[in-house]
């Protein structure tokens, strides 16, 4: 019993010393630290369903008071449309990522301006007057609340968006009807900067799979000036002071909801 009480305090420090030398490896040096974790990248691509806002706007006369029409109300109500998206995400940390997304919003049609067109084109029912093609680019910081080992990864994001409107034109018969009256038309929109927010989820096919399925809902704040002009067909043949010219403009809140469904691929280096 006395021998045990003596050996325990003596052998304990010796055992710790031996275990430390063993863990240091054959050469007696400590092993190098593990390599740093590789940064992850994700590329996603798929289809987008774009649902813009219907907005009632006031068109104001930019040139002069033509027969007492200084301004009028109109409705910009574009149809929902299918487009496509592609995005690239950099995940430098487990729970945070930086995503750059591009959405082609398809070709929207819609809107009415009854007071003006009922005056210029009597007895004609005005439906969709315009057509435009939005292109939406967003840059967002994203947060993933679950552990990276989970196969289902929900996330939320917030950032900025740049929306450009192209392909603007008056619709079909409106151009023909105006031309029959000796008039031409032009429809144009600007661009917009605003904020963007999204919620989404990635579904991985397995712990060792690089492929995933993605679903997301994105809201973008976008407001653009909208302008249309009506003027004579042959302006060169008519003196400047005698030319018929009307130009109206308004501010339109586009503010679309974008619903994405696509596939993604993860890689790291």
UniProtKB/TrEMBL annotation:
**Lineage of the organism:** Bacteria, Pseudomonadati, Pseudomonadota, Gammaproteobacteria, Cellvibrionales
**Annotated GO biological process:** transmembrane transport
Checking SUPFAM superfamilies in the record gives:
OMPA-like
Keywords recorded for this protein, A-Z: Signal
Gene Ontology cellular-component terms for this entry are: outer membrane
Where does the UniProt annotation place the signal sequence?
Answer: 1-24
Highest taxon listed in the record's lineage: Bacteria
Could you identify this protein by its name? Answer: Outer membrane protein
